Amino acid sequence: MKRSFIAASCLVVLVMTTDTLAQEPPHPLELPTGNMTLMAPEGSGWKAKRSPVHFPHSLHFGFPCKDCHHTWDGASPVKSCSTSGCHENFWAPLPGTASQDKPNIKSLTGAFHKACRDCHRNEVKIQKTQGIKEIATGPIDCEGCHPTPHSEIENSEEHLAVPLGNLVIRPPEGVAAKKAAVNFPHGQHFEFACQTCHHDWDGESEVESCISCHEELEPAAGRNINNPDNIMYYLAAYHKACLDCHRDTTKKRKAAVKAAAKAGKTLKAEDMPKAGPLGCAACHSES
Question: Is there a contact between 20 and 211 (Cβ–Cβ < 8 Å)?
């Protein structure tokens, strides 16, 4: 079923399917692509003084889902930003009027402005540091998001099914498996940008199978996954993508532990950078 999405009342998740899966978990989420309109939630009691914001959802799939959906567990339905206990106040309360029962509630307006502008400003800094002259990022000034005259409400009705939980990755049809299938925890990878793995995805089309591009069933130059001649070999593509990322996160984890020890602190497990397995048996488990 197609739905209209107003971000202030129904935010959704940035994830997608892959065709290498032997099964799809039940109750997939629906990922809206295209534009969404951000505006005051119905019944908020506030009359907008500026134009609603056209938010290009698809253009943000190059960023981790949890950059915006920061309390999402990767498995449950995504709650609205204005859900009770989250950013339920449209504006920040006046000094001395904040509820003592909910002292840490941030305003919805403040949350949106801080998240969007901070990210856009950070992108400017990164691109300038990289020596890029033609900066490409989102707007920072008011008129850039709230144009005059007021823009019309626009919510894309296009969506993609989003599998959650674990996905089973098997060899392509006709290829005999030498090791057990990989039980891939899709939901645990939403802290990374969708396009980190789905690197050719345009953010709107159906996600194609990895094997539709990396279609070679035998290596072109030995079994070295780092050999560029093997980039189209499906097994090299999978192993290189996963292992390179897992090695990088392992380095970050070790660096965080070392920095904490140097400062005389001990990191809690939940505060440590997550790291994926590096050994064959850890991914290709018979269980």
Answer: yes
The mean per-residue pLDDT over the stretch 64-84 comes to 82
Alpha helices in the chain (DSSP H): 108-129, 142-145, 194-197, 234-262, 280-283
Average pLDDT score over residue span 154-167:
82
Q: Please tell me the class of the 29-145 domain.
A: alpha beta
Do 29-145 and 164-283 agree at the fold level? yes
Specify the fold of 164-283: Cytochrome C3 (3.90.10)
Q: Is the pLDDT of residue 1 over 50?
A: no
Domain ranges in the chain are 29-145, 164-283
Q: State the pLDDT at residue 102.
A: 56
Q: How far is residue 152's CA from residue 262's CA, in Å, rounded to a whole number?
A: 55
Between CA 165 and CA 184 the distance in angstroms is: 8
Q: What is the pTM of this model?
A: 0.69
Of 9, 97, 17, 99, whose CA–CA distance to 52 is shortest? 9
10 Å CB burial of residue 190 (0-12, 13-18, 19+) is buried
